[in-house]
Amino acid sequence: MVRCGRGCPTEKNVHNTMTRFAPRSTLRLPALMKCRVWTGTVTTFVLLLASCSYAGAPKASIDPPPVPQPARAHGTICILHTNDIHGDLREFRVDTGTATAQTGDRGRAFQQYPRAGVVGGFARLAGAVEKIRRTHGTQNVILVDAGDTFGDQLLSNLTRGEATLRVMDALGYTFMALGNHDFEYTAANTRRLQGLVRFPMRAANAIVVATGQPFLGDPTEVVTAGGVRVGLLALTYHNTDQTGNRDNTRELKFRSGIDVAREYVPALRQRADVVVVVSHQGAVVDSLLGERVPGIDIIVGGHSHDRIQPPRRVGGAWIVQALSDASALGELTVVVEQGRVRRVVSSIHELYADQYQPERRFVQLLDSIRAPFRDTLDAVVATASARIGRHYKSESPVDVVAAEILRAHGQADVAFLPGLGFGVTIQPGPITREMIVGLFPHPTSAVHERLTGAQIMQVLEQSATNLRPADDMDRVGGLVQTAGLRWTVDLTKAAGQRVRDVSVGGAPIDRAKSYSVMTNGGLLQGTHRYSAFAEGTDIGRDAKPFGVILEEGLRAMRTVRAPAGGSVTLLR
C-alpha cells in the first residue's frame, strides 16, 4: 500500500501534448506585430504564434491536441475494517442472545453471535489481520476503523485513550473516522492523540468553529493498494454534541455527513479509482448517504454495531459493518476493472478463540500497557449470580440495577439513566472494577431534583421520539432507563402519544404531583435531547459522584442478580 496525499505525482495527470503547425511558408513575420507581447518558453511562443491573427495572411490549420485519457485501473484490493472497539482490548465470552449492548436486543433489528464462546481481544484481531496480509500480500491490503475506538473503558480512562491507539498504530492502521465517543477526553486531547499515531484520524463534518476547517485537517486520503487508487473520506456522527459532555466539543460544530459528503466526493472521485467513505453515522444514515450522494463505491460503517453481511447495496454504494468491541474483523475484497468496481466479496470473521490465534507480540504489548494499572483494573467489587447484560433500545438489566442503586442512595421516587449503546455482558462470577467502568465509563455527578408528573411524561415521550423520530437524521440515544416506574411505550403511535400506563411506586402517575428524582449530570445537561431535567426544581449534586455510588452499591449487594424485568413494555 502506498499513501498519496494531495499533489502526489501518482495523482497528477501528466500530459505530453503534441501540436501540429502549418508549414513555415504560410506564416509571415509581419503577423507577429499584431500578437500580444509575450515572455516565456519556446513552447509558450509556439502556442501564442499558433493563435495569432494577422492581416492578409491565411490562418494556419491547427488540429486540437489529443486529450489524453488516464489509465484505467485494474486490480484487486482487500479492505479490512473494524468499528466501535470502545477500548475493548481483551477477549470476552459471548452467548447467543445478549452478549453486547446491541446483540439480543428486541428493541432493535435482532442480531446475535452465531454461537457461544470466547471472542475478540486485540491480540487475536491482530493475528487475523496479519494472516490476511500474508495471504493477499501486504501491498494489496488496507486497514480502516469507523470510530468510537479509544474510549469507554477503565484502561482508556487511565491512559486518556492512548492504550488503544498504541496497539492500533503497531498494527499499521491506514485510516480512521472519529466517532462521537472519541471526543470524551476533550477535543484537545484527541488532537494530542493524533500526534502519537501515524495514521490519520479524521472527520469531515466536525468543524473547528474558530477556523471553519475540518478538525485535525484534510479528511481525505488517497492510498494505492493492488494497483488501485483508493480514496478515503471520514465522517463522524452529526449529533455528537448531543451524546456526551458538551464541554468536550465546545470548540467544534457538527454538520450533516450527507451534506459534507456531497462537497468532498466529486473531487475525491477525480483523484481515485475507488471511493470509500469511512462513516461513523449508523446503518440507517449510511443508507441515506448511499441514496443521496452519487460517486461513492463503498461505505465502511460504524456507530450502530451492526453485522452487515452480505454487504448491502444502496444507490451505487456497498455498505458493510462488523459488530463491535474488537470481536470481529470485516474483510471486503474489491475487484476493479477498467477503473470501476465490478465485484465485491465480503466476510465477517467473528474472532472465536478456537479459530483464531493471538499475535504474540500484541499479547506482550498489551500486558506491558496494562501492568501499571493491574491492581485497579482487576479489583473485585462483587459477584454476579447470572448473566447481566445491556440493551440499548429496550429495558436493560444492568442499567436497571444501576438505576435502583442510584434511587436507593437518594431515597427518591424515581431514577433515570441514559440509554447507552456500548458495553459487554457481565458473566456469572467476579465483577471487577474494569467490567463496571466498561459499562459506565463517563465520569459524571449524581443529581437530586424534583420533577412533576407532567415533566416525567415529557422525558418518556422524548425517549420514544429518540427511538423513532420523524427524520432519521434525528436519531440519538437509546431507551431511557428507569427505576421506580412502570410504563408502556408504543412506537406505532403518533409522536407525543406513545407513552401510557405510567405508574410511580405502584400508583398511577399524577401529572400535577412533584416527585423526587435521581439522575446523572449528563441528563441534567441535556444529553439525548432531554430538556426536562434542567427545568426541575430543588436541583442539587450529590457529594459522591455517580461512579462511587454505583461501586459502593454493588459492594453492599455482594451478590448481584439480574432484575426480573418487565417494568417497561415496548411495542414496535
Describe it for me?
The longest helix has 15 residues, at 122-136. Mean pLDDT is 90; it is low at 9-62. Helix content is 25%, strand content 27%. The chain contains 14 helices and 29 strands. The strands form seven sheets. The protein has a seven-stranded mixed β-sheet. Strands 7-6-5-2-16-17 form a six-stranded mixed β-sheet, with helices on one face. The protein has three domains: 20-57, no CATH class; 75-370, 4-Layer Sandwich (Purple Acid Phosphatase, chain A, domain 2); 382-571, 5'-Nucleotidase, C-terminal domain (5'-nucleotidase,  domain 2), CATH 3.90.780.10. By secondary structure, it is an alpha/beta fold.
List the helices and strands and how they pair.
Elements: E1 2-4, H1 42-51, E2 75-82, E3 91-94, E4 117-120, H2 122-136, E5 141-145, H3 154-159, H4 162-171, E6 175-177, H5 187-194, E7 201-202, E8 206-208, E9 220-225, E10 228-235, E11 252-254, H6 257-271, E12 274-279, H7 283-292, E13 298-301, E14 307-314, E15 317-322, E16 328-337, E17 340-350, H8 360-370, H9 374-378, E18 380-384, H10 397-410, E19 414-417, E20 429-432, H11 433-439, E21 445-452, H12 453-467, E22 481-483, E23 485-490, E24 499-504, E25 507-508, E26 514-520, H13 521-525, E27 537-545, H14 546-557, E28 559-560, E29 568-571
Parallel strand pairs: 2-5, 5-6, 6-7, 10-12, 12-13, 13-15, 18-28, 19-26, 23-29
Antiparallel strand pairs: 1-9, 2-16, 3-4, 8-11, 9-10, 14-15, 16-17, 18-20, 19-22, 21-26, 21-27, 23-24, 24-25
